[in-house]
Structures are given as C-alpha cells and as structure tokens.
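Progress narrative, Year 2. Work on Adenylosuccinate lyase from Ramlibacter henchirensis advanced from sequence curation to structure prediction during this period.
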Amino acid sequence: MTLSTISALSPLDGRYAARLSALRPLMSEQGYMHRRVQVEVCWFIALSDAGFSEFKPLSPGARTYLLGLVKNFCEADALAIKEIEKTTNHDVKAVEYWIKSRFDARPELRAASEFVHFACTSEDINNTSHALQLKYAREQVLLPSLDAVIIRMREMAHAYADVAMLSRTHGQTASPTTVGKEIANVVVRLAVARDRIANVQLLAKMNGAVGNYNAHLAAWPAFDWEAFARKVVETPEPLGLGLTFQPYSIQIEPHDYMAELFDAVARANTILVDWARDVWGYISLGYFKQKLREGEIGSSTMPHKVNPIDFENAEGNLGLSNALLRHLSEKLPVSRWQRDLTDSTVLRNMGVALGYATLAYHSMGIGLAKLELNREAIEADLDQSWEVLAEPIQTVMRRYGVQGAYEKLKEVTRGRSVRAEDLHALIRSLEIPPAERDRLLAMTPASYVGKAAELARRA
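Result:
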C-alpha cells in the first residue's frame, strides 16, 4: 500500500489533511526535528560568544550559515536525519550528527564541531523543542482559529442583539431573552478561555542530565552556567529561543506549564461543546435555517434534510481533543525519579490533540457561516408562550402589596395553554396604579427581554 491520505490511519492525515496543513509543519516529526536543529544552533552560537578561549566567536558568515540551517530546514533535511537515526537508533544524536555533517565544507565550523550538543542531555534539546512547537502552534494556528470563531460569534451577537427569543430552562418555556444575548454569553466565556490559553508561559530548561549543570561545571567550574542557560532560553529569536527559563528540574522539564496550557485549551473546547449542542437544538427548533450548497446531500434516503453536520463534527472532534488533552495534562507532570520515558511517546501526540481542536474550530466556523436566522419561527414560538408573562405580572403585584401574587398567577398559568386575553383579564382586575396596569397590558413575550439587547451589544 502506498502512503496517501486515503490510506492514512489517522483522519487528521487522511480525510481532514487539507484542513490541518498549517499545523502539520509545526507539530509533526519534521516540525519536531526543525526545532531541535534550532535549539542546537542557538546553543552552539551562544557558546561561541561565552568567552571561552577554546571556542572563539564565530564569524558573521558562519553565523548566517548556521541560522540558515534553521530558516531553510525542509523535508529533505528531516529525511536525512531519519536516515542517520537508522544507525544511531537515537533521534537527538541523529540531529547532532546531521548538523556536524553540514560543517564538512566549512573549516571554521568543522574545527568547533565538538561544541555541538556540548554538555547537553537529550532532554535539554527536546523540552525546548516542544516549547517552541507549542509556541508556534499557539501563535500561528490555535489562537487564530479560535479567534475566527469568536469574531464571527461576536458579529452575530451584535447583529441579533434585539431579536427576542423564548428561553427554555429545564426544557420548559421561560423568561424571554434575545438571540444576540445567548450568543454573547458564549462569546464572553470564550474570550476569557482564549486569554488563558494565550497567557500560559512556555517554560524550558537547559541544565543537564539531572538539572544541576554537572557536566557544564566539570568543563568550566568558574563559569555561571545558570545565567548562560537563562540567556539562551529567554533571548528573543533567532539568537535565543524566546521562552521562559525553568530553573528547577530533574532530567526533564516538569511539564506543569504544558498541563496548564492543555487544560486551558480543554476549557475553551468544553465551552464550544456547550454551544455546539445549543445551536444544534436551535436548528432543530427552526430558529436557524442553514444555507444550502449546490449538490450537497443531507440524507441518503430523505431528500428534505439539511443536517447540522458541522456542529456535530465540531462536537465530536472537541471531545476527541479533550480526551487527549486531559491525558496529556494528567500524565506529563508525573515522572519516576529523575527520568522515565513514558512522557516521550505521549508528547508525540500533542499535535493530534491540537489537531482535533483545530479541526473542530474549522467545522464550527463553517457551521456558523451557514446559519440564517428564521425570525418567523422565533416570533411564532414567542406568540404561543404568553405564560412567560406570569413572572413580570406577579412581580409587579408584589411591589404593590397584592397578597398571594405568585399563587394567583400559578393558578392561571401552570400547566395550561395561556392566551393574551387570560392575562389581560387578570391585569385589569388588579388594584395597582393605572399606569402600571397599562404598562403590563402593553407587554408581550417579545418585549419582555430585560437588558438582553444591551448586554449583547456590550460583549
């Protein structure tokens, strides 16, 4: 069998491959190798500037060449590293050997080649590479995809701010709201969740085999290796990594920040699961129609159907993403003694977890773009639900001391089909100020929305 999207084991690389083209270069094996090369090059250049007599500062040409290895890293380079790994059976060592092989035609670099991967354990390279992968995935794919959903929903919240709709608490008719306000509720929650994702600091350590700079100090005992490592980690790219320094670790970075990040993404996903189910219900009620696409089929046997598949796909993929994210956040901060390898294979699935989230955000965006408000259905629902005005009527009755206000409205409305005339007859019998009586008589289910429109526009 030849490798292609049709034979891919994962749907992320098969059916949905095109939708994840932006994430794949960042979170794939090639993306991982790319960041490893970046870390090794940054460490190597920094060592040349550290003031060691054994390693003089690199020439401008050598620096440009090294940074070019990072900038121009491609699939052919990744495949070359994989070929070396067939012999080494060690992926980080294969990266080191590949970099050294690129020095062959440059005597200046060849003479300094033993400073590639100097005093580093594999995890010094891996943990920094993972942080860089997450940095780029968050900046270039995850947040922009989530932002697109938030922007579209905010537009809808504002556009439909004044469109009254019936609420349903416990599935029963309840005080009206507006379409825009219900969407605004989700927008505000998502905005908070989005900021939590964006604000997680991405940590990295470069402190050797068990976190104590043992090998570093064996080579240069008087050198401040901790300050040096901090500088490499925190200096902006391309000469540094642009991450946050982790001063305390065992062989691996503790991964607590990863758990924080993945939990934050899972929280945003959960909010969108809530919305996907709600909008699915509103489509079922007829509050929204879906724009038709030429040639699209909703059911193989029922020609009339236009299924809410985008929201269903989003819900399913959000669930898959959260299952992986939660395992990542629970497992990664746990390591036996100073190191075990259980995190290594799990970390290779970060892209899968983020891939399902990205796919879900894409489906959500497609679904939102298809929605068309069905004002007639919304208005008809309101017109058949005059019982919701029992709340404002009994509240005004209480204001003016009418005894048994709640009980009187309960007797008239509970479990009954209530007409406007029934409520108006009751209102006219009330001993309340005439102006208040007239205000209640003018009220309709569509006008009883409180501050909903204002709140929607404010989101």
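The mean pLDDT is 95. The chain is about 60% helix and 5% strand.
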